[in-house]
């Protein structure tokens, strides 16, 4: 029969494993200084393979140019928020936050998304 100590050790180990498995980094997006309605320059806090944004009311994501943590998108027409962000991780998985960058975004501001990586 298992002792109370053994049972406690098993429970603590399981809780620790579950806790580590659920930990992640909050994905943030820094809208760089110099961004304007026709150019959005982003710096992410995590190295990713691809970043796309979708303006409110649009069905299509627009691909940002860049790599790693620096991404830019330019448009002839003003880009209107709020923006959904879809990112592709280095391992091939992807994440989406439908309201990552607010409608009244400001250059040189950091936005914490709902994405955990």
Compact overview of the structure:
The protein is an alpha+beta fold and 117 residues long. 16% of the residues lie in helices and 48% in strands.
The strands making up the biggest β-sheet line up spatially as 5-2-1-8
| H/E series | HEEEEEEEE
Quantity of strands, as a count: 8
How does the major sheet shape up?
4 strands, antiparallel
What does this 3D model show about the protein?
This protein has about 120 residues and is an alpha+beta fold. The chain has one helix and eight strands. It has one helix at about 5-20; strands at about 25-30, 40-50, 50-55, 60-65, 65-75, 85-90, 95-100, 110-115. The longest helix is centred in the first third of the chain and has 19 residues, at about 5-20. Mean pLDDT is about 85; it is low at about 15-20. Keywords: Signal.
Set down the secondary structure blueprint:
Blueprint: H1 4-22, E1 26-31, E2 39-48, E3 50-55, E4 62-63, E5 65-74, E6 83-88, E7 94-101, E8 109-116
Antiparallel strand pairs: 1-2, 1-8, 2-5, 3-4, 3-6, 6-7
Name the features.
single chain, alpha+beta, 4-stranded antiparallel β-sheet, 1 helix, 117 residues
């Amino acid at each position: 029969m298992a002792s109370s100590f053994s049972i406690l050790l098993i429970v603590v180990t399981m809780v620790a494993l579950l806790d580590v498995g659920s930990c992640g980094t909050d994905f943030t997006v820094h809208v760089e200084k110099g961004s304007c309605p026709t150019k959005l320059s982003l710096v992410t806090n995590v190295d990713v393979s691809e970043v796309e944004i979708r303006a409110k009311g649009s069905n299509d994501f627009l691909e940002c140019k860049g790599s790693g943590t620096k991404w830019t998108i330019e448009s002839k027409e003003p880009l209107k928020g709020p923006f959904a962000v879809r990112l592709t991780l280095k391992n091939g998985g992807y994440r989406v936050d439908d309201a990552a960058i607010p409608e009244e975004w400001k250059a040189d501001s950091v936005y914490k998304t709902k994405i955990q990586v």
